[in-house]
Specification:
mainly alpha, 4 helices
């Protein structure tokens, strides 16, 4: 091998090594980003769960003639809708985990909205607070447990 062939081979080797390193760095970076976004979504879901819980407990302590009821009703409905969409997207790829989350989300939804929710002329039901509290913590815990069971994304290029 003459001098120029050696220089060319060394340059080609350095180029391939540099490109391989950047490609692997990119793959690892994207995988870390995906995991970070999943963790962010779990944190956001927990925040929404507890906001909904607080609003629902307040809602069921008020009488039907209270002027705050329609606002709280709308806030609870909006949060429950958003929470369902968030959890659906987070666990969409994992059917079994999605089923577990949906089961617990339905229990939380029932604790918050079953019976006379949104009905005019209803009476206050402060005893619901216990069930709402229990189901909110169960949903938050189930979300964290299911997140831990999700497989990590290692090889995503784009």
């Amino acid at each position: 091998m003459d001098f120029w062939q050696t220089v060319f081979a060394a340059g080609l080797g350095a180029f391939i090594a540099t490109m391989g390193k950047s490609w692997l760095t990119h793959i690892v970076g994207v995988a870390k980003l995906d995991e970070s976004l999943r963790d962010y979504d779990v944190g956001l879901a927990k925040k929404i769960i507890f906001e909904t819980r607080d609003l629902a407990v307040e809602y069921w302590q008020l009488e039907a003639d209270d002027e705050k009821l329609p606002v709280i009703d709308a806030a609870v409905d909006g949060r429950l809708t958003f929470l369902g969409q968030l959890l659906e997207r987070l666990f969409a790829a994992e059917t079994l985990l999605l089923r577990r989350i949906n089961l617990q989300l339905n229990k939380f939804h029932d604790a918050v909205t079953d019976g006379n929710f949104g009905v005019s002329g209803r009476t206050a039901e402060p005893n619901r607070a216990k069930r709402i509290e229990i189901e909110s913590f169960k949903l938050a815990h189930e979300t964290v447990v299911c997140r831990r069971k999700m497989p990590r994304k290692f090889f995503r290029i784009f």
